[in-house]
Amino acid sequence: MAVKNAKEKALAIARALSLPLYDTPIELKEQSSIRPSPYGPAVLSVSSSAPPVQTQDVVITAVVEAVFAYSFIS
């Protein structure tokens, strides 16, 4: 989805400048969106019974840097 979004943005720029766009990115880098924690794991409390299991949605985020080429020669 992140690559598709980058391509759509590159295409919008190409249309605004009336330039043809080479469809395939010439460079593609995945950016890390996870920041390491400066603190290690810690135990806050000890309990003899197991904690309740909680469900939650998992959100996956992808960040990419895409380099596209435009043609200035018609």
Count the beta strands: 2
Strand proportion, as a percent range, falls in 5-15%
Range of helix content: 10-25%
Low-confidence stretches: none
- What strand order characterises the main sheet? 1-2
The dominant shape is: rod-shaped
- Gap between N and C termini, in Å? 31 Å
The Rg value, from CA coordinates, equals 22 Å
The mean pLDDT is 80
Largest sheet: 2 strands, antiparallel
Along the chain, the helix and strand elements come as HEE
- Figure out the total of helices: 1
The helix/strand class is alpha+beta
Short account of what is shown:
22% of the residues lie in helices and 14% in strands. The protein is an alpha+beta fold and 74 residues long.
Structure commentary:
The protein has about 70 residues and is an alpha+beta fold. It is about 20% helix and about 15% strand. The chain contains 1 helix and 2 strands, in the order αββ. The chain has one helix spanning about 1-15, and strands spanning about 25-30, 65. The protein has a two-stranded antiparallel ribbon. It is rod-shaped and about 75 Å long. The two termini are about 30 Å apart.
List keywords for this structure.
2 strands; 74 residues; single chain; 1 helix; alpha+beta; rod-shaped
How would you summarize the topology of this molecule?
Layout: H1 2-17, E1 27-31, E2 63-67
